[in-house]
């Protein structure tokens, strides 16, 4: 099978690019002497998970309990569920724990800590947990210097749960476009997590785990002293948002949607393709960046960018391809049936629209079909 034998739209994964992305992150983690706990939410695929964990102990991060189920069934035992826990998920978490999964939860309030501990006491399970730290005002978390709240949460977790440490996600880095800015975000993330851990230790609590991570901070950190593990996900495929930040090159983006030209609007300088927002997702993550890539950057079938052609607008199953500047386009170069590969703004979101990866390895031969899953 070759790309030309596929029915479009189809999600293409270039394994050669994926391996290079993985090697780069592995080298960063090794340079800093920290364990990699890859985040599996981007790939949601056992094959991708195995490639990301090769050479590491096999500890992973997930964003849904369905991922925890699937990856536990595939042999991963040490799983961090890195989204704040809700009461209606505790029975599910307890089931996985009883089956032998070391499932660690995260929480950032006394209320949640008391809820988890009470559930543990009432149900005879001990649920391990990390306290989420807000290191850069990005999202959730306890302030690193809020020693009183940290100690109160840690105290609440002593019976029915087990405090394992702290975690933070330097998501503020997704708005930083310079090497200095990315390095500064990495230091905010590191120092926030380490200060929170030190506050807990000073109050008498063991805090063995200091977990940080986002792809930009992990790749641009200059020092990870005091950190024990890195949680990173999108690096495995990268995407146009990461390229727009300068975290990777456009050529590093390992996933793209293969689409066919299905028509033209010659006077408007537009091609119509069979990949609209259903195939690309609605994610417009590059809209606020210096280069707006529309709904995706248009490449030839082999993945080489065609100048400044983008999916300028999208309906459910139609993508409208035009030059980024709206200038004229010789549509005769793209007869009906021409295959194009569209690189995504956000690979997690685009991959989520598809049920499988058609895997190539640098060329146009399909070397495998890997299943992926969605939902909760
Ligand atoms: C809690 C948490 N940790 C780690 C990550 C990994 O970040 P990235 O995909 O930038 O590597 C994410 C991403 O959303 C996250 O939410």
Which ligands occur here?
A: pyridoxal-5'-phosphate
Secondary-structure element order, as H and E? EHEHEHEHEHEHEHEHEHEEHEEEEHEE
Query: What class would the helix/strand composition place it in?
Result: alpha/beta
What share of the residues does DSSP label as strand, in percent? 15-25%
Share of helix among residues? 25-40%
Tell me the CATH topology of the largest domain: TIM Barrel
The CATH architecture of the largest domain can be given as Alpha-Beta Barrel
DSSP summary: helix tally: 11
Q: Main sheet, how many strands, which sense, barrel?
A: 8 strands, parallel
Distance between the termini: 33 Å
**Average pLDDT score:** 97
CATH domain class of the largest domain: Alpha Beta
Integer count of domains: 2
How many beta-strand elements?
17
Label the overall shape. elongated
Low-confidence stretches: none
